[in-house]
Amino acid sequence: MAATNSPALTNAPSKFRSAEDGWLDVSGFLDEKYGFLPVAMPITEPAVGYGAAGALAFLSKPLGEVRPGFDRPSVTFVGGMGTENGSWGAVAGDVRYWLEDRLQTVAGIVYASVNLDYFGIGDDPRLENHPLHYNLEPKGGMLQGKYRLGASRFWMGLSYAYASTQVSFDAPAGTPGRPDFRRESKVGGLTPSLTYDSRDNIFTPNRGSYVEATAGLFSEALGSDDGFQRPRLIAMQFFPIHPKLTLGLRAEGAATFGDAPFYLRPFISLRGVPIMRDQGEEMAQVEAEVRWQFWRRFSVVGFTGGGAVWNDFERLDRSKAVVTGGAGFRYELARRYGIHMGVDVAFGPDNPAVYIQVGSAWARP
Fold first, then answer.
1. For residue 67, what are the contacts with CB-CB under 8 A and spacing of at least 6?
2. Please, is 72 exposed, middle or buried when counting C-beta atoms within 10 Å of its C-beta (0-12, 13-18, 19+)?
3. Is pTM, for the whole model, over 0.85?
């Protein structure tokens, strides 16, 4: 009978346990993983209710071959989601790297049906406590190319997106606060971008910056029903103020000019605020987060933020502002990749909200 306790077997590195401290760690699994990778995540977004999302991704190379910012695997994926309020969606995409990682291409298609509540654009007292229920059913896709400028941390990009969206409200025409809309809305446009990224990792950064400026240009010539523009700026900074303490700051601003559909107006995106609850022609928000890795792989986080939306730069009396805050915990699930996973509880203008987090709450690939 063959021995079952040979050194070659008992001393083999574990894919799910760290040789450094013996704790659960999936770095070994990710080092070797390539080919097909199943992914499943709960959905806890308060705007659509609890649900789940799943995907099957194909990786072109093991993640262990990745160097910071280089040699990333190309990924092809298909996935879907569903929530308790009847929202559902399906997506397929491909992220690919060329020219020794200087060129990134992204392609994707989506078909979804999402049930949401409409609280108006800017401050609308008629809808504050009595929102209108509506459904969006988009079908569309996008193509994007981003090119790294020399050996720098800057990327220049250009994307084209097109979607045909069915829009329906439960409330009949003439209901106070119901927006003007096309039952079938077509949107198509180009979005140039400039990105600077010096984060030490893309999952749970401890240091570095991320700044991205985009300018969406939509017109009838590009497939839209109407012409409009949608500039956006986002900036994040991460500071290691102590070996176990990290401070993160995020600021974001966006605006729309022209005849943008109501569902493409900027909205406040903070933990504690349901998605697309507070919309306006212009939006600005800030958020701060402190993460303290207080014991071994365990961390606690505290965060607070505020945002405002308004309808034009001259009529700030139509503005609406919110303040949020909360706390959570993290477990360092993959130390070599900087992946922390946990739960946040956030407090905002409505009921407390729970968020499952994998990596940073401000995820940017």
1. none
2. buried
3. yes
Q: How many CB atoms lie within 10 A of CB 334?
A: 22
Tokens found for residue 42: 């709960």
CA 183/CA 187 separation, integer angstroms: 13
Which residues make Cβ contacts (< 8 Å) with residue 37, sequence separation at least 6? 56, 57, 58, 59
Of 357, 68, 63, nearest in space to 197 by CA: 68
In this structure, what token pair is assigned to residue 203?
């999952």
- Output DSSP code: residue 4: S
Residue 64: exposure state from Cβ atoms within 10 A (0-12, 13-18, ≥19): middle
Q: Which amino acid is at 313?
A: F
Give tens-digit pLDDT for 23-60: 999 988 887 767 788 889 999 999 999 999 999 999 88
**What pairs with residue 87 in β-bridges?**
none
**CATH class of the 7-358 domain in this structure:** mainly beta
Name the H helices within the chain.
7-10, 27-32
- Report the amino acid identity of residue 336: R
User: What is the C-alpha to C-alpha distance for residues 332 and 270, in angstroms, rounded to an integer?
Assistant: 23
